[in-house]
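seq:
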Amino acid sequence: MPGPAEVLVVMAKCPSPGAVKTRLAERVGAHPACELYGAFLADLAARYAAAPWRLVWAVTPGSADLSPFVGGAGEQIAQEGDGLGERMRRCFARLQESGAERVVMIGADVPHIGEDVIAAAFAALEDGDAVLVPTRDGGYCLVGLRAPHDIFSDVPMGTAAVFAHTCARLDALGLRWRALGESFDIDTLDDVGELHRLIARGAVTLSHTAAVLRTWQVAGWLR
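struct:
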């Protein structure tokens, strides 16, 4: 489907207990972890449905429908391939082969990422080949490309070396890239606590997530 030259793609799993946020599920249970993930999707949809770029949800399993969580915000495509790196590579290729000039990708577990950060990532792609937002655990929560370069093959996804290996691959390919300021994604209960504090002090508005976290407070899962 043709659309704006700038595309924000969200890599998302269809919320299902036991299939999403498994590290959190070990602490709070599969159903509460799944409810929180669904709230992330709803808040991302609310924040970016009217943004000046095309919003695309890359969904796994490919037959799933996120509409109960995101409504009519954006469009949905299936993730394709084995392994996260391959699915990401194919997603970039599909979108850019269909006319997208600059593609920025995030995961669904960074509902707090700001429009200013995403705008800065698109701006970095005006004269650069790639852009990343590193995370404190050694990974990254945003990656953007101006062309479908394969920066994912042979990178050990899901490890503390993801960012370092990706930077080395970018350099080996001779690409011009930059890293924006560090952020974090939501993997652990400590991460949820930090997100809760951001919401509490008004640094970000995430109404669906805030509603879920109020129930987590009552349950005693948040300090």
